[in-house]
Amino acid sequence: MPNIAVLPGDCIGPEIMNAALEIFKAAQQVTNTNYTIQSYPFGGAAIDAVGEPLPASTLAGAKAADAVLLAAIGGPKWNDAKERPEAGLLKIRKSLNLFANIRPTKITPGMVQYSPLKPDIAKNTDFVIVRELTSGIYFGQPRRLGTADAVDTSHYTEAEIKRILEVAFTMAQSRQKHVTVLDKANVLATSKLWRQVAATVAPNYPDVTMDFEYVDAAAMKIVSNPTQFDVIATSNLFGDILSDEAAAITGSIGTIPSESRGIAGPNLYEPIHGSAPDIAGKGIANPIAMINSVVMMLTNTFHDTQTAGVIQNALNQTIEAGTLTPDFGGNATTTSMTTAIIKAI
Amino acid sequence: MPNIAVLPGDCIGPEIMNAALEIFKAAQQVTNTNYTIQSYPFGGAAIDAVGEPLPASTLAGAKAADAVLLAAIGGPKWNDAKERPEAGLLKIRKSLNLFANIRPTKITPGMVQYSPLKPDIAKNTDFVIVRELTSGIYFGQPRRLGTADAVDTSHYTEAEIKRILEVAFTMAQSRQKHVTVLDKANVLATSKLWRQVAATVAPNYPDVTMDFEYVDAAAMKIVSNPTQFDVIATSNLFGDILSDEAAAITGSIGTIPSESRGIAGPNLYEPIHGSAPDIAGKGIANPIAMINSVVMMLTNTFHDTQTAGVIQNALNQTIEAGTLTPDFGGNATTTSMTTAIIKAI
Ligand SMILES: CC(C)[C@H](C(=O)O)[C@@H](O)C(=O)O
Ligand SMILES: CC(C)[C@H](C(=O)O)[C@@H](O)C(=O)O
C-alpha cells in the first residue's frame, strides 16, 4: 500500500493539512484507492514536543515513505530557539537528498485577474523554476557568526550542478524545449562553474536550446516580460529569491504547490507559501496550495491521475462557484471551503 | 572650479554620455556656471586601449575629481577577456570606497502607464534601496574556480554594516522615517550579523522605525505591494537583484539614475541600465537616465539646484511633448531628443 509521511508543521500548517487530507480521503473513496498516512512532528511543533525541529523518528518515517507531504513551518514563537524550525527544513532536504526543487509559475486566462501585472504582460505566462536545493550558500562551510564579523560560503561541485541541470533539460524536453541558466557569472566563481558545466550538459539535449541570463536581469524580466521563460535552472539562493518573485506575479501564492525531488528516496511536496503566523487559528487559511500539493504528489509520485483528477475537478468547481477564503476576496472559512470541495467530490 | 571625471565606457555608453554632456554644457551657459570635464577610458574601451579595464590614470583622475560620471560598461566583445570590463567596475567601487549605492524607485502619476503593474498597485510607489557596494560575496575571499568545484565567500564586518545602515537611517529621517532591512537571517550567518548590528544602530535614530524582511518575501512584495516600502537597506548581492526588480516595476529603466557614495572622495553617478550592446551604434539609445544622473550629481554633490533645475525642466518638457526614443514608444533618435532638450533649455 502506498505510504505517505505527513508533516503538518506550524501555525496554519495543521489547519490546511487537515483540510487537504479530508478531501484526499473523500477522493480515495470515489476511486477505490487506499493510501496509508502517517503524521510526524516537524519544525516548531517538534521543537515544542521533543526539543528539536527534525526528530530522528520523523526523519526515519520520511525516509521510509513513498512520498512526504509538508504543510508549512516556522513562526515568531521560535525566533530565539537554539535550533529554529527552518533548520529542520534544511536538514530534511539534505538527509533525503532533495536536490531539485520544482516550482511552476503559470497564469491561466482565469487567473489573469489576480495577477498584479497588467493583463497583456501576465497572460500566457508559463514557466518552471528548477532550483538546486541541497548545496550552495545554504550549506557551504565555513559559516561563522561573531560579533565583529561573519562569514558564509557558497560551494558547488561539478556533480551537483550537472544533476540539477539534467533535471531542467529533461523537463524542457516535454515543454517548450528551452532552458535559461540564471547566474551572476560576471562576479561569482560558482556561477562561472555553472556555465562551464552547462556547456558540457547542453550537447546531450540537442532538441533543447539554452541561454544564460544574469540573475539581476532575470529579476527584471520576470516582471516586465515573464512569457519569455520556459525552464529556469538556478542555484539554491537565486532560486529562493526568484521563485518567490515568480509566485508573486501570479497573484495567487495561496494556490501554488512545489515538488522537491530526491535521488532514490521519496519526493517532498509542499505549498510554496509559509506558515502565516498572523492568521493562524483564525480558521481562514486558504487550503488550495496544500490541496494542489496532494494533486501534484498523486500525479508525479503515484501516477494516480484518477484520484488527482477527482480532487482537481472538485477544487475547480468550488473555486468557480466563488467559495474562496478572504485572501482571494471570498468569505469562506477553511472548513466551509473543505466541506464544499468534499461535496463536489 | 568643480571638476568631473567622465567615464563613457562601452556600447551605448559614449552615445548617451555625449548627449548628456551637450545638454549639461547648454545648461551651464544659462546658469553661468562652469564645470571642468575630463574624460577617461574605462571598461571594455580601456581593455581595447591599454589592456585593462581600470587603467591607473583613470583611477587617479577619478580620485582627484569632485564627482565621477559613468555611462555604462561591458559587452559580448570582452566575454573572453583576461579581465572583463565588470572587473573594472568592482575595482573602482573598492578603490574609491563607494560603499553605498542609492537607487530611488518612484512611480509618479504620469509614469503609472509605463509600469508593468496594474495602476492600483503601482501608484504612489516611492522607495529607495540603499545597497552595500564594497563587500559581501562580491569581494570575500577565498574565491576559487576549478573544473571540479568552485567557491565564493561572503564576508561582512560590523563596521561595514554599521556605516551602510547609518546611510539608510539618515535617509529615512528626511523621508517616511522607516527602514526595512532585507536579509536571509533564517539561513545566513552574515544576515544574522546584519540583524545584530541593526539592533545597535536603530536606537540612535529614535524617529525612525525599522523592520526586518526576508529577501525572498521582499522579492514578492516589491511586485504585489510596493508602496509599503520607504528605505530598504541590504547587502551587495541582495541589493543587486532587488534593485533591478524594483527598477522593472517602474517600466522605465531607461530613466533611473543612481548614486554610489564614498567616504571622503567623490561620489559616482550612473544610469542603472547597462550598455545595451544590441542597440549600440544605432543612434536610438535613450539618454534620459544619463541626463538624470547629471541632475542627481548636480543636486547631491554640487548642490547646484539651479543648473539641475534647468536640465530637469527641459527634460520634462521634451518628454511631455512626446519626443521619446523607441524603448518608450517614440521615434526620436538620441540626437534628435538631445537637440529638443537643448532647444527647451
Ligand atoms: C524557510 C527557508 C529556509 C526556505 C528557504 O530559503 O529555502 C524557504 O524560503 C523556501 O523557499 O523553502
Ligand atoms: C555589472 C555588474 C558587476 C554590476 C553588479 O552586479 O554590481 C551591475 O549589475 C550593477 O548592479 O551595477
TrEMBL record, chains A, B:
GO terms for molecular function: 3-isopropylmalate dehydrogenase activity; metal ion binding. Its cofactor is Mg(2+); Mn(2+). It is an enzyme of class 1 (oxidoreductase). The keyword NAD applies. Keywords: Amino-acid biosynthesis, Branched-chain amino acid biosynthesis, Leucine biosynthesis, Magnesium, Manganese, Metal-binding, NAD, Oxidoreductase. InterPro entries: IsoPropMal-DH-like_dom (IPR024084), Isopropylmalate_DH (IPR004429). SMART domains: Iso_dh (SM01329). The keyword Magnesium applies. It comes from the Bacteria. GO terms for biological process: L-leucine biosynthetic process. One of its GO terms (cellular component) is cytosol. Its EC number is 1.1.1.85. NCBIfam families: leuB (TIGR00169). Belongs to the isocitrate and isopropylmalate dehydrogenases family. LeuB type 1 subfamily. Homodimer. This is 3-isopropylmalate dehydrogenase. It comes from Agrilactobacillus composti DSM 18527 = JCM 14202.
